[in-house]
Amino acid sequence: LTKRHISEFYINWNRKSDNIKKISQKLNLGLDTFVFIDDNPTECAEVYLPGENSLLHEISIIFDKPVYVGDTLTVYGRVNKVLSLFKRVSINATIKNQNDMVVSHAIITVGLTK
After folding, report:
1. Neighbours of 90 (CB within 10 A)
2. Taking Cα atoms as reference points, which of 78, 39, 75 lies closest to residue 59?
3. Residue 79 has pLDDT above 50, yes or no
């Protein structure tokens, strides 16, 4: 991605959740239309986006096949581990592009908010 692919961004020391809310208001988009990705679990834990009452804690992907700007990726998965104490679920996932071609496999850790 290049800067021209980004609609709006803030680079500052403010909380990331506050910046996302400001972007949501400026672009007149609901928070349920946003995806937040960060390699720092603490940053991920600070940001809650509405959806299925879950919070993505961890995802590590090395794509097996090329992925291009404009591709639509769909994640299919099956729960392989439930960590009740930490309110987390581990999912074995398969990621496909818009042509139904598998581009990667991943283990996704999701924290439940309820």
Report:
1. 17
2. 39
3. yes
